[in-house]
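Deliverable D5.2: sample structural annotation.
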Amino acid sequence: MNKYREWHQQQCRAYSGEIGTYRHFAETLGRILNAACRVYAPHGIVQAREKSLSSFAEKMARKAARYSALGISPTDLCGARIIVETQAEVERICAWIRDALIVDEVNSVDVRTRLKVAEFGYLSVHYVVQLRGSEALGVPIPPEISLRKAEIQVRTLLEHAWASIFHDRIYKAGFRVPEHLKRDVARVAALLEEADEQFGATVRSLDAYKPHYGAYMDKEGLAEEVEVLETVLENEPDPARLPAGALRLAQLARATGNWARLEQLLAPYTGIEGAYQAEVLAEHGNALCQLNRDRPLEEAFRKGQAEIAQAVAQAQGDVRTRSLAYRAWASAQLPENEEATRENYRAAYVADPDNPFHLASHIEYEMYCGESLGLAAATGPTIRAAIAACRAYADANIELPWAFLTMGRLLLLLDDPYASLAAYARGIRVSLGNRDTVPEAALDAELAFLRHINRGRTLPEKHKWAQQQILLAKAAMGANLAGLKPERREFRTPVVILAGGTSTESKARVDVFRENVLRAFEGFRGTVISGGTRAGVAGLAGELAAAGAKALGYVPTNLPYDQPADDRYTALVVSDGAGYGAGAPLQYWTDLLLAGVRPGDVKVVGIDGGPIAAFEYRLALALGAQVGLLTPSTRAAATLQLDPDWKDDPNLIVLPKDAMTLHAFILAPRPALAPEQVDAVAQRIHLKFLDEHRYSNPDSAMQPWDNLREDLKNSNRMQASYAAAFLEEAGYRVEPLSQQMTPSTLSEDEIDRLAEMEHGRWVIERLQSGWRYGEKRDPSNKLSPFLIPWEDLSKEVRGYDCNAVRAWPARLAEAGLQLSRP
């Protein structure tokens, strides 16, 4: 070393004069790499520094012979390290480095290629680079550093962990490392390499859930998120971060179809350069096209197309595939542009073949441009994989309603009409339940899809079912009812749909509930609709019609579906002419909506059933009707209770086998109490309940009125409201209190009957509020052991209802009302 001492001193003096420049180089490089990570590895960690004078001196001393002989200097005087989460991010960062920087290929190395097949150890990618041009990703590059070189290492978190712990201890050890320790270290490296691969696979699976159209939010959640992000954006101190904040808000606007808001948010940033330029251009361009979709030849639409095209040319990864999809959609709006649209959707699908939405659009336009329905059969495995991807989105509660709507498309292509209708029904339920956050265009796209795949021919019947279902959803949203044709225009309300098995094989299962159903419908005045045979539930509906006509003194009859409503009859039975398969329920729902009947006012009673009944239940729920399934359930009714898409729907109620519970479910009361009277009576009912000391404190029900939970207040209000309706059914009239009249008193037989009715009402009120049966009462979790038939209650519990009914006249009197017999 003595002969290199003077040379070494010269090198150290020279570097000490240069170290400030390399420090500036490290700062600039760090800013550039952080900007790259925001795009290609959002959680990446960047470390950049100049080589310290002491490290430089040691390296030059150890390699004096080589460096002095060749007249070269180290390439790592400025060094940077990028630590990312997965190997996929390593690849993306490496691709960016090769594209954006000048790489010294001779001195760069992928250390992973050094290891033999059976070896495990240090893994990292090393690049020796120079910066290119006067700026990179919006970061200015000072001229004095543009010709200098830096070394960049790219590795995963687990590779970094191994290197931090073992690399220096192995490769820079001052002793010969024993073989057994090398083997231990290699074993750890092998485990970490396997873990790295598993992390990568898991991350790829999770990233499949990343929304392409915007994650589902309800109205309240959306408004809250918008308010938070607007506040953050208004108070963002760093101008460089404003585009990112605007894009987050734009994503919410995109999910709800608020294109004007999206365009307004991003307009100030369309001229920016750097990491967010492509995404801003893609989203802003798409918004312009959406806003001007009816004027595709005008300048604003063309400007949007140009911005999308620029984004396609610049973007990488998800932003690029999204831009390709936007480009395809925009091209579809131009007249006579089908071939270009097909090519654009094909490009979007090729860029992201795992995206089910791109696949569905790709197939749609392939068929639109001449491919036959056989294309769907040929791509069956791919379509099934796409359906599974949509199912995964739905299970994660994202991409709604689009995940279900796309499942509907794909299942229809596979000629599975009832599964398709079920998927469409769930998509409609999400759309109607959150109509403030789901654009109507989501349903319009499904109608366009059906037209496109059937270009030049009449829609097959099964495709007409899907079309009519989408039109019903639009009608329920308040859209024009054009395109829907009625067969019947009048219905006597209330309307109850009796659905389920209509085959002769279903008769035994339906007969289990026959007595309860007939008793529950005693005195019913309204319309009962049932399916197109005379067996099963349809036969039971015929008995209801006959019983109602007989009670009113008329000849029993089953009315054909298209006969006008008549106050003499209490029930209608759908005839065979109403349609086959899914056509019958689609038609009667068409007629109900065109007659002005609100879905929320319709009740569906379900018993047993096959595929048609399964669709009836789901269609009713989708449109907003309440569906009550009688237990013990079988076949379609039982399956619905286990269906993860529907089992927790608030409009699905599992009814105990109890006549008065069913009676309360179908009852449409006309209470004689004004709202203020309801509240007054409800408070007195609650005071009576507290006096009984039925439960011990602490209990959520045993609270003063002002502290009572709202759902428990509503329970008292419901009892007060329904009391008048039940009394009227029993032959009484509820009228203002008069000193000239002697108030009627209830007989014990009347009390027993009314108590049974009150228990049925209470069960329905609890079930509609989310309560479920539990062996022990647990108000905090809404569990009750009393959600059972009247006949199964203990004498003590029945006594509570009897005492409540016995007190009704007194409670009404306190509200200025009395009972009398007409």
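Annotation notes: The two ends are 122 Å apart (CA to CA). The domain at 675-820 is CATH 1.10.490 (Globin-like).
The annotation will be released with the project's public dataset once the embargo ends.
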